[in-house]
Amino acid sequence: MSPWAAAETVPAELPTLIEALALARAWGVERFDAQMLLADLIGQSRTWLLTHDQDRLDPDQARRWIDRLERRADGVPVAYLTGRHEFHGLDLDVTPAVLDPRPDTETLVDWALELLAQGSPAPRVLDLGTGSGAIALALRCRAPADADVTAVDVSAEALAVARRNGQRLGLTVHWLLGSWFEPVRSVGCDPFELIVSNPPYIAESDPHLPALRHEPRLALTSGSDGLDAIRHLIGQAPAHLQPGGWLLFEHGFDQGPAVAALLQARGFTRITHRHDLAGHCRCTGGCFAV
Questions:
Q1: Per the CB 3.0–4.6 Å rule, which of 103, 124, 199, 241 could disulfide with 245?
Q2: Hey, what domains does the chain have and what are their CATH numbers?
Q3: d(C-alpha 214, C-alpha 105), whole Å
Q4: Residue-wise pLDDT tens digits, 257-289
């Protein structure tokens, strides 16, 4: 057996790529994650790894590989270790200042794009709690060419990440710093045809929070039932929507009925749910007609 099969430090003999992946298994790192981390470390593709599995890491790479495995085994997201994540076909910079974008959030983007395709030729769109800018940038990239997209975040660090992503991708979004609708009011934005948000929606006592300890708590939790941010946004949104405008949320898999009830109580109609790839109710939205 290779000394790398159970190593926690760098042995004298530098590892081959296949030995490096064996070490990842010994650390409990999933195969796909290990391949992503190793490919990024050496600046090659996952396919390249398969055809060069007897190549050896150099000393610096070997030390960095041990560090990456330690951090991944401690639950640090792969995106924080590589510094990037693909979302809706866009390669995004990601840091610990923002949530690691999830594939489930693409459900929200797809729904928003469907509505934009059916609406006015120059829609105004608002993304609240933009984080890395994933939603706003995906909409700016895929929406009608003359769509006007604004994105808000309360974290200056997060907004800096989003702005960098927009500049690198060549996508124009109006980035506003502040809490929810406050910066929109302060700059006097016209009403929007569509407002989307992936707000914090985890209850503060949720037992799964320790597994998310490396991600920004502000972007995760929202009150005792996880719905405080959604309640606030539903209450404020009508003042910022065009007649017939839509408000869409991502939320927890079991929160759909509660979000629908909140929308209905505020006067929203045509309330609809969308399900993620696992079949869970992941998004809820409604139309506000004055």
A1: 241
A2: 3-74 (no CATH), 84-288 (3.40.50.150)
A3: 19
A4: 999 999 999 999 999 999 998 999 999 999 998
